Every structure is written in structure tokens, then in C-alpha cells.
């Protein structure tokens, strides 16, 4: 296994170039855990339907060169018509202030690399960093061993950030296959509110592996929304692991919109740490050719009177492969839990496949929990109805698919983002729609 051997053979050199005083011991321990675990194979239950062999057989440069020639015009094409947003631009792992627009005030915002070297943030990192991220997976341990890129944001009590923040991770001008171990830490204190949009973009023909870990902490009466827009090219791999811990009376949303990338694996864990919590997870996946997208979600209901809502829609064409494995755990003290989980899929070709596995583990007796999944083709009666009114078969199919996916966007309250997703849907489905 090329990538595994590369990491083990060069770990001393790698760690020496990543020295951060209060992370050194954690990095060494994480690398040891990684060595013991090895990369998962299809023999592992969590990767039963997803082979990552094409990722792990390649070698990667873990320290990309920083030089780039990204232009404003190229960046403008990535924006969402977001003149009133803030945006943060990382190119080849480095935060570029001259390409960013940051007007947020009364918050703590730092690039992750800078925060790791800033002694005054040691107490914050000791309290939060790597406390909810999984300790027993190869990719989270690999990330901990080599994390350097990403951002740290702390929103103080009762501070409402009115403007959404779009975080761009861009790779360009790399002559070798490149691996980024991106790390994000978001802390939203009591009564605060923030919305983040995250997107990754590879401008090269070389392969990019992004191994990202995000930890979100949402305190009482706070609201945190994180929108993942995944529309990269076909030489990009993304393994994204996001962990969200919520305190009482909080609301956290993670929306995942996947339209591009050769292989995408999304791991999403919600941990309830109080009562009256609301958690929302929505996803839209539209892929074709030989792309693979795997969504693994888990919600841990540990306290009473909480709600979680999962709604994932998938449209698969060509030889695309989709995976959905959603888990809901209800602790015996988590009475009055209301958990909804749904995964609906449409297969547009004989070569497309979907493996879906919704799961409930309930140990309380006064709950409302439901789950379900569907796999099929378009409704022939609805198709006939549209064609009988003079709409071509192709346009009728696209309109039905657009309507099928559209309800997974309903809780997006950022209008430019909703419009961007709608346009991407229309482009993928090859239909003309008025916005």
C-alpha cells in the first residue's frame, strides 16, 4: 500500500517539519495509532461498500509548494454572487489575506497554523482541540499527525455574525499528487450565531487528497450552520470527518451538497450534550461516470426532548456508486426524542448503484423515531403527465429530478447559496430553469 508505506517510512521527517510545542506528543501518538490501524479495507464494516484502494495506492506530497498564480477572475467564478459575504481563501494550504475579505469583528479568528504557534491559545486548544474527533479511525489519526492547514474561529457569547463566511481551500501549481490534512475548529458560545460555507477546488491535473477534520461546539441558545459545497474535479479525493457537540437549547445544521470529486467520503457525527437540542443534516448528491460518494452519519441522542432530522437525496448516472449509512442512537434516558431519517435515491442508468443502510438503536421507550430509504426510477405517471403537456422527455425528466432534490434545500436561509445550488442542479440535470 503505497501511501501507508510512504507515511511510515518518512514519519520522522514529516513530524520534524511540523513542530508545534503543545501538539508534538499528540502527533506522535496519532501516528502510532495510524500505524496500528492501517487504512480501512472493504473487510471493515464501516467501509464495506467503499473501496479506497485507488487513493491509498498513490504517493503524495504532504508539503505543497506555496507559489501560485490564482487570479481574481478565477476566484470570482467560484463565488456565489456573495458581495455581502465575508470569505477566507487558502491557497496551497496558506491563508492569503490579500485574496480574502474579512470584516467580522468581536471574534477570535486565526489560521490554524498560526493558532498552533500562539501560546495564548493553548488553554483553548487544550479544552476543545481533538476532544470530540474520533480517536479510532485511520484518517482522523493521520489528520492529527499532520494537520497544519485550516482555521480556528471562536464566536463569543451573544455575538451574531450577520454575514455568512465562505471558506475556500484551493490547490494550484502542484507538480506532484498532493495531500492536505485540513483542520477546522469552530466554537459558538451561548447565544451566538454563525454560518459557514466550505468548498474545495483543485486547479491542477495532478491528484489531490484532502483529509479534513472539523470540530464544532455549539453552546446553549446558539446556532451554527455549516454548508459543504463539494463540486471539485475528477482528480480530487475528499475524506471529510465532521464532529458537532451541542449543548442544551442549541441548533446546529450541516448541509452537504455533492456534485463533483472522484471519490468523496463524508463522516458526520452529532453528539447531544443537553436537552431541547435540534440537529439538521441534509444532503444532495448528483454524480455520474465512475464517481463514488459515501455518506456516513451518526446522531447520539443522550438527553431527553431533543430532535434530529436527516434528509439525503441521491441521483446517480453512468457507473456512479452511492453509499448512505445513517445511524441514530437513543440513550435510555433520552425520552421524548424525535428522530427522523430518510434517504431517497434515483438511478438513471443500469450501471449506477446505491447501497443504503439506515439504522436505529433505541434504548428509550417514549420516542418518535422513523427511518426509511427508497431506490428507484422516475415516476412514469408523472413523466407522462408532463409529456402530455408538450414538454420533451428530457426536460420532463430533468424537472422531476429537480423537484425530487429540491426539498433537501429548504432550510438554507442564505439566498445566494440556495440559488447557487439550484443552478448547479440545473446544470447537472441539463434543464433551463428561471431563478
TrEMBL record:
It holds the Pfam family SUFBD_core. Residues 4-167 form the SUF system FeS cluster assembly SufBD N-terminal domain. Residues 175-404 form the SUF system FeS cluster assembly SufBD core domain. InterPro entries: Fe-S_cluster_assembly_SufBD, SUF_FeS_clus_asmbl_SufBD_core, SUF_FeS_clus_asmbl_SufBD_sf, SUF_FeS_clus_asmbl_SufD, SufBD_N. It comes from the Bacteria. Belongs to the iron-sulfur cluster assembly SufBD family. PANTHER family: PROTEIN ABCI7, CHLOROPLASTIC. NCBIfam families: sufD (TIGR01981). This is Fe-S cluster assembly protein SufD. The lineage of its organism: Bacteria, Pseudomonadati, Bacteroidota, Flavobacteriia, Flavobacteriales.
